[in-house]
Design brief:
seven-stranded parallel β-sheet; two-stranded parallel ribbon
Length: 280
């Protein structure tokens, strides 16, 4: 990296489907919510908190999203905090879109020092009760889950890891959930998350392949309900607020991973609220 160039962190999935006007929020509550009284650190869930954290640490943060308007408020918040940010549109279902997005990133700001893959999806949540079994799951729901959980990070890795390998440094960090630990039955109202087992496996493979080249790969298991406008308004979060995970603190864990000394890297980190037992 040039001594005069600001380090770059790319956050894939910087906005949340549980933000005030997110898809999950509208599905769960039937409308968009007012987030003006919420702390800025929780308004966009984990991705937004990670973006704000790295910006505060001096990184130029690239926010990727399918539509630039989705990340406009987050970009403004980062700039109001004195950080640097830019938005690049990217659709993880399209390999052409991924390729174009990273060509744009390299042209505008250079190769990233950090890549955080935080993409999520809601496919499966709208299936009605008594439709939990595989026989009721449409193929397109599985295909979307595969696109986001394994094909997307595979293609993103191919875009950023070569430069990190040549440089002998970099962090490729994956935001995952407890469904990545083993296959589980999908319950009513849940996304089709078992393809995330493959996301965890990809992180393990990349760890073995790229650690010796100086690239830190880690899978972060976020084992609980993450605070955001949509989740905070859910009945169980209202009844038991101690179950809700603070995304600002989750973001600190991601930054900690990036700053670890290479003599003692962590390759999987599981974060669980104190009132619950860790998933396995």
């Amino acid at each position: 990296m040039s001594p005069n160039r600001q380090p770059v962190a790319v956050v894939v999935g910087a906005t949340s489907k549980w933000q005030a006007d997110g898809r999950n929020t509208k599905l769960a509550h039937g409308r968009a919510l007012d987030d003006r009284d919420l702390p800025v650190g929780v308004r966009w869930g984990v991705g937004g908190a990670i973006a704000q954290k790295f910006a505060k640490e001096g990184f130029l943060v690239v926010l990727t999203t399918r539509h630039a308007a989705n990340a406009a408020a987050l970009e403004q918040a980062i700039r109001e905090q004195g950080g640097a940010s830019t938005i690049v549109e990217m659709d993880l279902v399209s390999d052409a879109s991924i390729s174009k997005a990273f060509a744009t990133i390299r042209e505008k700001v250079g190769d990233p020092e950090v890549l955080v893959y935080n993409a999520g999806y809601l496919e499966g949540r709208d299936l009605p009760p008594d439709k939990e079994l595989l026989e009721h799951v449409p193929l397109e729901i599985l295909e979307t889950a595969q696109h986001i959980a394994i094909r997307g990070p595979f293609l993103v890795a191919k875009e950023v890891l070569p430069a990190m390998r040549r440089r002998g440094a970099g962090s490729f960090l994956i935001s995952n959930n407890s469904s990545s630990l083993r296959g589980r039955k999908r319950l009513t109202g849940q996304s089709l998350y078992y393809p995330r087992v493959m996301m965890r496996t990809l992180a393990q493979v990349l760890t073995e392949e790229y650690s010796e080249h100086g690239v830190h790969v880690a899978n972060v298991v976020i084992d609980g309900l993450i605070d955001s406008p949509g989740t905070r308004a859910l009945p169980r979060a209202q009844k038991q607020p101690e179950l809700v995970m603070n995304p600002v603190k989750i973001a600190e864990a991601f930054y900690y991973l990036h700053t670890q000394d290479r003599s003692c890297w962590t390759h999987e980190l599981q974060l669980t609220p104190f009132v619950t037992k860790p998933s396995f």
